[in-house]
Write a structure and sequence with these properties.
Blueprint: H1 2-26, H2 31-42, H3 45-56, H4 59-77, H5 79-107, E1 120-127, E2 133-134, H6 138-145, E3 151-165, E4 173-181, H7 185-189, E5 195-196, E6 213-216, H8 218-225, H9 228-231, E7 235-238, E8 241-248, E9 264-268, H10 272-276, E10 292-297, H11 303-323, E11 331-337, H12 341-345, H13 349-384, H14 386-394, H15 399-428, H16 433-436, H17 445-470, H18 475-480, H19 484-520, H20 528-532, E12 534-539, H21 541-546, H22 553-561, E13 566-573, E14 578-582, H23 584-587, E15 598-606, H24 610-613, E16 618-621, E17 634-639, H25 640-647, E18 656-661, E19 664-676, E20 692-697, E21 713-719, H26 727-737, E22 743-748, H27 749-792, H28 794-802, H29 807-843, H30 852-879, H31 883-889
Helix pairs in contact: 1-2, 4-15, 5-13, 5-15, 5-17, 6-11, 13-17, 13-19, 13-27, 15-17, 19-27, 19-29, 19-30, 22-26, 27-29, 27-30, 28-31, 29-30
C-alpha cells in the first residue's frame, strides 16, 4: 500500500515537471533549459516529497526508518569513534545505574524473597533513649494481635544465635541464626516454601505443646544437604535439642528484614523454651522486650488508620512496663511499609547517609566526565562532517531534519552504552558484596527505567548542542572553508574540554585521597617471625551462653597448652568496639570545642602475660596481674600513641579517665596502670580497627561488660615454631573438648596481615582504576580537540611550513593550545577539589592529613602530564603535513 502511494506521488510530481517543461519550451527555451527551469520552479524533490508524506500522515515511521538506516551507515564508516562513544557512555550510564540500583535495593526494596505488598507493614517500637527502634514484649505483641479491626494477622519473632550439630564429627558444630516465630509467619508474609511443608501449629498463640520442627533457608539446605529436597526430613540438633527439618524457604529469602547472616532457621515460637531454655516469665514480663513484629493490614485499611491504634497499645504497654521498674526512658511505636532498610529499622540514617552521598557524588562526577567526553567527540565529528551537513541543507533538508538525524545517532549510542553498562553490572551483581549481605541490588524495572531515562537525557545533553552548532553552517561557508564557520564549534569543543578537565580533577583528587587512606593502612611487615608463631582461634561462646552450656574454654586451654610445640595459650576477649576516653577536666570544658584530653579507642580483654607473649614492651607502669579483676576501678593499659594523644608529655600512670560507650552513655572511671608499645596497633589480636587499642583485664563475665556483652573468646596460641602446621591439631582438639562451641575462624597473625594487605590492595586497584579511567576520558576529549584543530587549520599549517616555519614551531603552537585548555580546566576545578577534600577529611578518620597536599599535587601533575601527551601527539602529526599536498587540496 505504502509503495503504491509512493509511486503515485512520484508519477504526479513527474507530471507537474513535464507540464512546466512544456510551458517553458513554448516560451522559446531549449528542452534542457526548460527542464532545468521547471525543476527550479517546482523545488527540491526530496523536500517536496517529505512535505507530502507529512501531509499524508504516518511520515514518522518512514523518517525513523531512514534515520536509523543512515545512522548505522555512519557508524559503519566511523567504527573507532562509535566504539569510543559507546564505551564511554557505558561507563557513565552503567556506573550511575549501578549506584542507583544499589542505593534503591538497600533503601527502598523489600528484603530478598519478600513480596512488595502494600498490605505488609512493620510494627516498629521506638524508644527515646536510643537512636534506633526498640523491641517489643510478648504482652505488647499480643495486644497488637488483638487489633483485629486493623490487622488481618500479626506476626512476632525472636532472633537468637544457636549451635547446629549435623552429626558430622569432622565438620563439628555450626553457628546459625534462628528465628523463633509465631506459627502464622510464612502465611502472613505470603511466602511459598521451595520444598516441604510448614509448621503443624498455625495460630498466632500456639505455644503448647512444643513443636520441635524447623524450616531452613535455601542457602543452608544447599550448603549442608546438597539442595532443598535433600534437607527435608533430616534431623539435626539445635542447642543440643533434636529438631526435624520439615521445609526449606525460597531462594534468597532470609527473613523479612535485610540481614547479612546466610545460615537461617525458622522454628515455632513454642520451641523457644526447650531450645534456648528461656523461662515462662519472658512471656508475661512487660519489660522483657525481645520480639519484632510485622502485620498484614485488613482490606481498605491504610497506614494512617492503623497508626493511632498502634500508638494506643504502645502507650499502654509502656505505662505497664514503667510501673514495674524505675526505667526513665519512654517508648512508643509506629507502622511503616515492610520495605527499605532505613524505613523498616529507622536506625541507619547516620551510617548510610555519608556513604550514599559519597557514592552519588562520585557517580555524578563520572557521568559528567563521560558526558563532556562524548560532547567533545561529537563536536569533533560534527566539524569533520560539516561538508556533508552543508550539502544536505543546500539540497533542501530542513535544519530540524538534520538535527533529528544527529540526535537519533547519539540516542542509539546512548541506549547501546546504557544496555552494555547494565549488562556488565548485572553480570557483576553476583560478585557485589552487598548482594551477599541479604540486599536485593539486582537490576529491576526501576533500574531499567532509570537507565533508559538516563540514556535519553544523556543523548539530549550530549547531542543537542553539537547538532545545533553543526547545522548553523551554510553551504557557501563550507565550500569556501571560511574560518567563521568552524571557530564557533572549536570554542564549543574547548568549552567541553575545559569542563571535562575541571570535573575530572576533583574526581581524581578524591579517589587519590581514598587510595592514600587505603595504602596508609597497609602496615609494613615487622617482626614477621613472631607473627608466624602467633595463632588466633576465635570461638563463639555467646551461643553457648544462650543454651546454658557449661564453660568448656578452661578445659580447652589446658588441653591446647599440653600440645607439643605450644609455648603458651592465653584466652582474650574479642575486640569490643569503639569507646571514648576522656580526662575528667575535658568533661567540664563544654561542647563548643573538643579539648586535647579526649580520644577514641577500641577495647580488648587480655590476661596477665599477654604483652610478654606478643613481645609488646611495657614502657611505663606495669602490666596486668591476677588481682586486677577484683578492683573497684577498672585498670587499663593504653597504647603509647593513645597516651600521647590524651596526656601529651605528662605522666599517664595513675591518672583516671572517663570511659563512655555508644551502648551505655553513663561514664565509668578507669585508671591507667601501664603504657605499651605496639608495633601493630591496628592489627592487635587480628582485629580490624583503625583505632588505638586500650586493654582491660580479661575475665569471664555473666553480668554487664565494659562496653558490650562479650560475644566470644579468642585464644592466642604462641608456638615454638611456625604455627600454621599445628592448625589441624588445634581444630581437632577444639572439636573434641568444646563440642558445643563453634570455631569462627583460626589463622596466624601473619595470615591475617596478608589477607588485609591483599584486600586493601584490591580496593586500591579498583579506586585507582576509576581514577585512570577518568584521566583517560579527559585525555580523549583533549586529543579530539587538538585533532579537530589540526584538521581545521590544515591549509594554515601548509602555508606556514611553505613560508619557512620550522616543524617544532607548529608542534609548539598546538601544544600550547592544548596546555592552555588543560590549565584553565585545572584552575576551574581547584575549588571543587578543595570542597571534595574537605568532605573526605570529615568522613575518613585515618586519612593522613600531611599527605593531602602531596596527593593533590601529584594528581595535578598527572593530569598535566597526560594532557600534554594528548596535545603533543596530534601536534606532532600536524608538523608532518606536506605543504604542497595541503595547498593542492585547497
Amino acid at each position: 500500500m505504502r509503495g503504491r502511494m509512493e509511486r503515485e506521488m512520484h508519477d504526479e510530481m513527474a507530471a507537474h515537471i513535464a507540464q512546466a517543461t512544456e510551458r517553458f519550451m513554448a516560451r522559446g527555451m531549449s528542452e534542457r533549459d526548460a527542464r532545468f527551469a521547471a525543476r527550479r520552479e517546482f523545488g527540491q524533490l526530496g523536500a517536496v516529497q517529505d512535505d507530502a508524506r507529512e501531509a499524508r500522515g504516518g511520515q514518522w515511521l518512514d523518517s525513523l526508518a531512514a534515520d536509523l538506516k543512515y545512522a548505522f551507515r555512519y557508524f559503519a564508516r566511523t567504527p573507532l569513534t562509535t566504539i569510543t562513544i559507546v564505551l564511554t557512555l557505558a561507563l557513565g550510564i552503567g556506573f550511575s545505574s549501578a549506584t542507583f540500583s544499589v542505593i534503591n535495593g538497600i533503601l527502598t526494596r523489600p528484603a530478598p524473597g519478600v513480596p512488595d505488598d502494600p498490605a505488609l507493614v512493620k510494627i516498629r517500637g521506638i524508644s527515646n533513649a536510643r537512636p534506633y527502634a526498640r523491641r517489643l514484649s510478648y504482652p505488647e505483641l499480643s495486644a497488637y494481635a488483638g487489633l483485629t479491626d486493623k490487622f488481618a494477622s500479626v506476626v512476632g519473632w525472636v532472633t537468637s544465635g544457636v549451635v547446629v550439630d549435623l552429626g558430622d564429627k569432622d565438620l563439628g558444630v555450626l553457628r546459625a541464626r534462628a528465628h523463633f516465630v509465631t506459627p502464622n509467619y510464612f502465611g502472613t508474609l505470603g511466602i511459598r516454601l521451595a520444598a516441604g511443608r510448614g509448621f503443624d501449629q498455625s495460630r498466632f498463640d500456639d505455644r503448647f505443646p512444643p513443636e520441635l520442627t524447623a524450616i531452613v533457608s535455601d542457602a543452608f539446605a544447599s550448603e549442608q544437604f546438597g539442595g532443598a529436597r535433600g534437607a527435608v526430613g533430616k534431623q539435626v540438633k539445635v542447642n543440643d535439642v533434636a529438631v526435624t527439618i520439615v521445609g526449606v524457604g525460597p531462594p534468597h529469602f532470609n527473613g523479612p528484614v535485610q540481614s547479612g547472616e546466610p545460615r537461617t532457621l525458622w522454628l515455632p515460637l513454642s520451641s523457644w523454651q526447650p531450645v534456648a531454655r528461656v523461662s515462662d516469665e519472658i512471656f508475661a514480663n512487660p519489660n522483657a522486650e525481645s520480639f519484632e513484629a510485622l502485620a498484614r493490614l485488613r482490606r481498605n485499611v491504610t497506614l494512617a488508620e492503623a497508626l493511632p491504634a498502634v500508638r494506643v497499645v504502645a502507650a499502654r504497654a509502656d505505662a505497664e512496663a514503667r510501673a514495674q521498674t524505675e526505667r526513665t526512658s519512654t517508648g512508643t511505636a509506629d507502622v511503616v511499609r515492610l520495605r527499605g532498610l532505613m524505613e523498616v529499622t529507622g536506625r541507619y540514617d547516620d551510617e548510610l547517609g555519608p556513604g550514599v552521598a559519597a557514592f552519588t557524588a562520585i557517580a555524578l562526577l563520572i557521568l559528567l566526565v563521560c558526558t563532556t567526553t562524548v560532547n567533545s567527540l561529537l563536536v569533533g565529528a560534527a566539524v569533520a562532517r560539516r561538508y556533508e551537513i552543508g550539502v544536505r541543507l543546500a539540497l533542501g533538508a530542513s535544519r530540524r531534519r538534520v538535527v533529528r538525524q544527529l540526535l537519533t545517532e547519539i540516542a542509539i549510542l546512548a541506549l547501546a552504552g546504557g544496555a552494555l553498562g547494565m549488562w556488565a553490572f548485572g553480570a557483576l551483581t553476583r560478585l557485589v558484596e552487598v548482594a551477599k549481605d541479604g540486599f536485593d541490588v539486582s537490576p529491576n524495572w526501576a533500574t531499567t527505567g532509570f537507565t533508559v531515562l538516563y540514556a535519553v537525557l544523556t543523548a539530549t545533553l550530549c547531542g543537542l548542542s553539537p547538532a545545533l552548532h553543526a547545522t548553523r553552517v551554510g553551504l557557501s561557508d563550507v565550500l569556501k572553508d571560511r574560518p567563521g564557520g568552524t571557530a564557533g564549534r572549536s570554542r564549543l569543543q574547548r568549552t567541553f574540554v575545559v569542563a571535562q578537565v575541571a570535573i575530572a580533577q576533583p574526581l581524581m583528587v578524591i579517589l587519590a585521597a581514598v587510595i592514600s587512606s587505603v595504602v596508609s593502612g597497609i602496615e609494613p611487615t615487622r617482626n614477621a617471625t613472631l607473627r608466624e608463631r602467633l595463632l588466633v582461634a576465635e570461638f563463639d561462646t555467646y551461643v553457648g551462653f544462650n543454651s546454658k552450656a557449661p564453660d568448656r574454654m578452661p578445659g580447652l586451654v589446658r588441653r591446647l597448652a599440653d600440645l607439643p610445640g605450644v609455648a603458651a595459650v592465653l584466652p582474650v576477649g574479642l575486640g569490643q568496639g569503639r569507646i571514648s576516653l576522656e580526662l575528667p577536666s575535658s568533661r567540664s570544658s563544654g561542647d563548643h570545642e573538643v579539648p586535647p584530653g579526649r580520644s577514641s579507642a577500641v577495647v580488648f580483654d587480655v590476661p596477665p602475660g599477654y604483652f610478654r607473649a606478643v613481645e609488646a614492651p611495657i614502657v611505663r607502669g606495669r602490666e596486668f596481674v591476677a588481682s586486677d579483676t577484683t578492683l573497684s576501678v577498672t585498670p587499663v593499659v593504653i597504647a603509647e600513641s593513645l597516651a600521647v594523644a590524651l596526656f601529651r608529655s605528662s605522666d599517664p600512670i595513675g591518672r583516671r579517665l572517663f570511659r563512655v560507650s555508644p551502648y551505655d552513655e553513663r561514664p565509668a572511671e578507669v585508671e591507667v596502670v601501664g603504657v605499651v608499645r605496639m608495633e601493630h596497633e591496628t592489627n592487635t589480636l587480628d582485629y580490624e580497627s583503625d583505632l588505638a587499642p586500650v586493654f582491660v583485664p580479661f575475665r569471664r563475665r555473666e553480668g554487664p561488660c565494659l562496653t558490650t556483652c562479650i560475644l566470644g573468646t579468642k585464644l592466642l596460641i604462641r608456638t615454638t615454631g611456625p604455627a600454621e602446621p599445628l592448625m589441624p591439631t588445634v581444630m581437632a582438639v577444639a572439636r573434641e573438648e568444646a563440642r558445643m562451641v563453634p570455631l569462627i575462624r583460626m589463622r596466624t597473625l601473619a595470615q591475617g596481615d596478608r589477607l588485609r594487605r591483599s584486600s586493601r590492595l584490591e580496593a586500591t586497584a579498583v579506586v585507582a582504576g576509576c581514577g585512570v579511567v577518568a584521566l583517560i576520558l579527559a585525555s580523549i576529549g583533549l586529543y579530539a580537540m587538538v585533532s579537530v584543530a589540526v584538521g581545521q587549520r590544515r591549509r594554515e599549517i601548509g602555508i606556514r611550513l611553505a613560508l619557512g616555519a620550522h616543524a617544532r614551531q607548529v608542534v609548539r603552537m598546538f601544544f600550547r593550545s592544548g596546555l592552555r585548555v588543560t590549565l584553565l580546566g585545572l584552575a576551574l576545578g581547584l575549588p571543587l577539589s578543595v570542597v571534595g577534600l574537605l568532605a573526605i577529611l570529615t568522613q575518613i578518620d585515618d586519612l593522613p592529613r600531611d599527605s593531602v597536599p602531596a596527593v593533590a599535587a601529584l594528581v595535578t601533575l598527572a593530569v598535566v602530564g597526560v594532557a600534554s601527551l594528548a596535545s603533543w601527539l596530534p601536534a606532532r602529526r600536524a608538523a608532518g603535513v606536506d605543504p604542497m599536498a595541503a595547498l593542492r587540496s585547497e
